[in-house]
Amino acid sequence: MAxxxxxxxxxxxxxxxxxxxxxxxxxxxxLLEASRLMGxxxxxxxxxxxxxxxxxAVEDIPESFDARTQWPNFVHPIRDQQQxxxxxxxxxxxxxxxxxxxATNGKTNVVLSPEDMVSCDTGDMGCGGGMLDSEWTYLxxxxxxxxxxxxxxxxxxxxxxxxxKCSDSxxxxxxxxxxxxxxxxxxxxxxxxxxxxxxxxxxMVYKSFLSYKSGIYNRHWWQFWDQELGGHAVKIVGWGTExxxxxxxxxxxxxxxxxxxxxxxIKRGGxxxxxxxxxxxxxxxx
Length: 286
Hints:
286 residues, 9 strands, 9-stranded mixed β-sheet, Cathepsin B, Chain A, 8 helices, alpha+beta
């Protein structure tokens, strides 16, 4: 397994922020296999994507917010990237799926295709990973089809050939982003989620994150034994505070058996694991 019971016990004995355990997701995986899921090739913004600001007053931000309760039919279910480094494509497609539904009040409520980006976005590297800046360029310039049109098949690590017609009977329609933007501080991230829906975030994953079961994940400075595995992309759906600790609510793409039914919480503020420095989004082109 990518980690063992001794590793879990060490984590639980040395901190109380979150509970570690043996997740079924990684029961038969090596650490190398797990690291291949971390498909974000860089956690340094290129500067090519414009920065969006909201200039929101702190007192106008609620203590807690959850897009799943704000828009209960428009935040789509947890998915599973399986054994492909396609987290970048999953989180980007999921953000756009939710934002189309929210912006149109459900008139365009469609699950969009991560396979489209994995197979067709030549600016990125499919199961070998991607860059958030170039991914959003693809979403703006080319767009992606529905998941029913181009279903996910790259789960074993091999992307299908790019398609130009649907596998079902629907019309081949590309759903595009009207623009893309980079959010650079906590308040702007909160304002954007609250006003327009979930956003995409990339962060550095360490070995301890694989064992996350519940609570508020926080990697402490003294965890020198905690191996760095690579950049991972996910979807922020909200935030809150528990026992004085502020956190983000985040959707992962490792199926519902991992974490809090596929979600996790991570400490908000302080840029834990670089979580707040690579946050991206876009408005749907309607």
